[in-house]
Amino acid sequence: MDEEFLSQIDHVAEFLPDPHDKKLDDEVLICECFCVSVRDIRTACAHLHEVDLRLLQENLSLGHGCQTCLRHLDSWVTKIF
Asked: What beta strand segments (E) does 6-79 contain?
């Protein structure tokens, strides 16, 4: 295989979810301003089995404070379910 092809594979692999990523513990706070934990998010979105930001913002005020939780969304959203 040539170097360019291997480089392209590495580039694409950067965007794939890491199968070794573990799910976050229930007690981890995602939104410190409003004390929204992973457990709160799982409970609020359980019927969808995926994170619904609109629902979380409306019902739990997630992201209505300093918005750090939204700025770091990519670091936690895939580790909820």
From this structure: 29-31, 36-37
